[in-house]
Amino acid sequence: MPELPEVEALREFLDDRLTGRVVERVLPLAVNVLKTYDPPLTALEGGTAGATARYGKFLAVPIGGLYLVTHLARAGWLRWQDTPPAQPPRPGKGPLALRVVLEGGGGFDLTEAGTQKRLAVYVVRAPREVPGIARLGPDPLAPAFDREAFTALLAGERRQIKGVLRDQSVIAGIGNAYSDEILHRARVSPFKLAASFDAEQAGRLHEAVEDTLREAVERAHGVAAGNLKAEKKSGLRVHGRAGEPCPVCGDTVRSVSFADSSLEYCPTCQTGGKPLADRRLSRLLK
């Protein structure tokens, strides 16, 4: 799933190519992709695009007084085309979900692989009309997201820190991969209760959040949209690397599986050398 660093890179990518361009056509090609119907997609046609904004994992493009908002979900992606195909696409065929064509040439496709179709597109008068944006917590790269603000978010949270970091209503933009990376960097168990952090531990975790995300944003800066997935994977130290040696201590990276995802961690760096039990079967290690 694209997370904050990749979505920020896509924001920059679109901003460079869309701002000031006029939208000629917007073609919905998957029946499930459009989540709003008033205003209609056709209301965007003839409008001029402004600067693309990011809200957590959402992208919002202002077009002629309205906003085209998208969330790429787990398997969605954006593909830019300098010259869109002359032949109109066939709805319901392949991964293509939405096509935006610009006057004078160029445009982009929104695609989604797999069978779980969760990519979402909205046409709204203001970004906060999108329920997912209205529920977002603070952006971890915003100046106001300092150590004190982060510590306050953890206070009273009886959930595991892995789940808290991924909760978009608590912190916007962090998903499965970067939460693994943040916790490894901070040397924290993913099963540790958020409310159990003392001031020093909370400060160290806050630093790991900022450093991990800022470094990932810097790596993604200027990378073409088509190469962002590979760039993300190359920069991950533990996520998706079960069975490989930890780059910090050399211990074997371990994994805990869930119904539709998994987490990765290093026992030596994060859990005092103890492997974590499967949360579905055993009492959680803290």
Gist?
The protein is of the alpha+beta class and 286 residues long. Helix content is 27%, strand content 19%.
Percent helix range: 25-40%
Point out poorly predicted stretches. Answer: 281-286
The 3D shape can be described as elongated
Secondary-structure-derived class: alpha+beta
The proportion of residues in beta strands is 15-25%
Measured between the Cα atoms of the first and last residue, the distance is: 27 Å
- Give the spatial strand order of the biggest sheet: 1-6-7-5
What is the average per-residue confidence, as pLDDT, rounded to a whole number?
A: 92
Compressed to H and E, one letter per element, the order equals HEEEEEEEEHHHHHHEEH
Number of H/I helices = 8
Strand tally: 10
Biggest sheet character: 4 strands, antiparallel
Rg, Å, rounded: 20 Å
Characterization of the model:
This protein has 286 residues and is α+β, with helices and mostly antiparallel strands. Helices cover 27% and strands 19% of the residues. The chain contains eight helices and ten strands. It has helices spanning 4-18, 131-134, 147-154, 161-166, 176-186, 199-220, 228-235, 267-270; strands at residues 23-28, 53-55, 58-63, 66-71, 76-81, 96-102, 107-112, 120-124, 254-257, 262-265. The strands form three sheets. It has a four-stranded antiparallel beta sheet with strand order 1-6-7-5, with no helix packed on it. α5 (176-186) crosses α6. The longest helix is centred in the last third of the chain and has 22 residues, at 199-220. The protein is elongated and about 60 Å long. The model is unreliable at 281-286 (pLDDT under 50).
